[in-house]
Each structure stands twice: as structure tokens, then as C-alpha cells.
Amino acid sequence: MSIINLAIIDKYPVVRIGIKIFLKNHFPEIVVFESDSISGFQDADPDIKPDLIILGVSQVNDLNNISILKSAKHNYPASKIILYVEASGTSNSGSDFEVKALIVSYLKIGIDGYLSKLNNLSELETCISDIRKGKHYICSDALFSMLLTENTGVEKAVNKVYHQLSSRELEVAKFLSEGMPTKTIAQKLGRAPSTISTTKANIFKKLNIDNVIKLRDIIHLREPSQTFGNQKRS
Which pLDDT belongs to residue 87? Predict the structure, then answer.
């Protein structure tokens, strides 16, 4: 494919500058844009529709990445996306199962390339070249990690998250992920609104999240066939 416009989205200026210099040296025909966020890029260049986005995110097992990636796909559905993560394998805060679950989730959402910031920049060149040929690319260490993880890894990883919640909390979590307000949940379950609010707070604390969008993303990992595009936030 022909890639003319390329956007580098990363919160670290030094990362953006380094990639930009590298790209200018290896792909002189490409016009490079940069920003610290998807929203910042939209505000700065609303008329630019990048052919390829290099999307820098934090560690692979950060659930925030799913929301960031979905936002990028929503705003730029025709763009190819390389997810550029701080670490591609297991970190201190995630097991092999959790890492594999999220990588698979990223692929389902529609990334075209997956790289670690620990990889040599020459691998970024290979990744971009493959994507220009209509291929997908996953860096070798992430691929190796996935291959070593048994086939049931995704299910186990998500179940591990779910098992942190009680049956009541899981019931409330599903209602919240569907966009149901706490008052409506309280009426449905015959509980006081304050009780549901407390349960909601406990769910967020256990899952280390701070909003319903992130909760919805966790539910999506377990039930990927469900869609919540038309539902409102609570």
C-alpha cells in the first residue's frame, strides 16, 4: 500500500523525535506528523487522515490501552495502526496469560503491527515495510511469548480478573458495562442506590480502573461478541 502520511502518537517527546528522524532517513517519501495523544493530533491537524499511525502506549497489560486503541480506530477507521508498547512480554504487573489475552484483544480490535519499544529500530523498518505490502507484523518476542502460552491462556487471564469479583459485584459490573445508571440498577436489584454506588466503587478498586469505559473493555475481553456502541456512560 502507499503510505504518504504517518502519525506518531506518543506521550514522550524524545520517542517521537527519535522515530521521526529514523523515518526521515529510511522512508524519505513519507510525511511525518506527531502528537502526544490522539485527541491532540485531531485538534492540531483535523484535516489530516494518516495512512499509518504509530501508537505509543504504556505496558502491554495496561487495560487503558484498549480504550486508546478503540479511540484511534473510531477516529481513523481507514488508517493502519502499529501498537508500540513499552514492553511486549510479561511485566511485574502481569502474567503470561494476561499479556496474551490483551495482545489477542488488540489484534481483534484491528491493529496491523505490534512492536516493543525495546526492539531495535530496524524492526520498526521491517514492520512498516510489511504493512506497506499489505501484511501484518508482530515482533518476535511477543510472538514467542504467545506461542509458549497454552491455548486456554486468554480464557484463564480474563477469568482471573473476573474471580476478583463476588457474584453480586459481577452482576452490577455487567449492568454498568451496559451503560445502566446506578439508580436503575438499584431498582432492578431491589437495593438502595447508595449500596450500588458502594459496590461500584469496590469493583473499580479491585480491577484498578476509574471509569465505566475501562470496565466495559474488561467485559469485552470475556464477551467479545457483545457490542456497546450505542450505550451511554453512567
Answer: 66
The enclosing H or E element of 6 equals strand 5-9
Exposure of 190 in the CB half-sphere (CA atoms within 13 A): 0
CA distance 125 to 144: 20
Threshold 0.70, pTM exceeds: no
94-119 pLDDT, tens digit per residue, is 455 566 777 878 888 899 999 988 88
Does position 221 have pLDDT exceeding 90, yes or no? no
Burial class (CB in 10 A: 0-12, 13-18, 19+), 78: exposed
Instruction: Decide if 206 contacts 218 (C-beta within 8 A).
Output: no
Of the options 1.10.10.10, 1.25.40.10, 3.30.70.930, 3.40.50.150, the CATH number for the domain spanning 164-222: 1.10.10.10
